[in-house]
From TrEMBL:
InterPro entries: Iontro_rcpt_C, Solute-binding_3/MltF_N. This is Transporter substrate-binding domain-containing protein. Keywords: Signal. The lineage of its organism: Bacteria, Pseudomonadati, Pseudomonadota, Betaproteobacteria, Burkholderiales. Residues 38-259 form the Solute-binding protein family 3/N-terminal domain. One of its GO terms (cellular component) is membrane. GO terms for molecular function: ligand-gated monoatomic ion channel activity. It comes from Pseudoduganella aquatica. It comes from the Bacteria.
Amino acid sequence: MRTSRFSLKLAAAGLMLAGAMAGAHAADLLETVKARGAIKVALEGTYPPFNYKDQKTGELAGFDVDVARLIAGKLGVKTEFVTSEWASILAGLQAGKYDVIVSQVTVNPKREQAFDFSVPYEYSMPQLVVRKDEKAQYATLADLKGKRVGVGQGSVYEQQAKAVPGIEVRSYPAAPENLRDLAVGRVDAALNDSLMTAYLLKASDLPIKAGAKVGKVEKVAAAFKKGNPQFKAAVDKALADAAADGSLKAISVKWFGVDVSKAP
């Protein structure tokens, strides 16, 4: 069968138009979540009191877990939790393994280039942890030049420590290993979130203590892939409604004794 050049051009134009229309009508993540009836939430699952497995029940618990369930409830869907090591959690989001991360993701310019974020649901500050018998006074990260500082692998605190020339940064997959090395002298200080620090020190019998708060206030928010404006608007509204009706504050007080959902 012979086909005219005009017919071929017309067919090609039609295919291009159809492709453009399909791209224009690509489903927003909100549509996908609503159709599924559940939102897939990634978290570390080993980071108490934010997200961890309760030893008695075997179920996930923590501040992030409650926030994720609160968001899902406001959206009218169920939660499906997916656990991931922190070092690969953002890559998993980019690969589409889950819809959103609610796992102490600090908002910073570099991450904002790759992902979208909800409005913050938590505010905290970086804080040092040192041995109880430490005589040196570390008021800033700059005071730790020539020292060994333990941080979470892939965390914003790792980035902050590496930004200071002269600090030997040692990265750990989880906080307990970091603090054990601090206690026995393998590192000179640990750097973590101020809320996490308070919790760890309360639960730990290691010979360590809280050090100075260093740096600026950090914003923690839910992270998701770019290009989903309806989903972002819905999650932002869910958090705004939760702030207005007091349910977000109630979760904060439950885990920390204070409202950490408001900027200091």
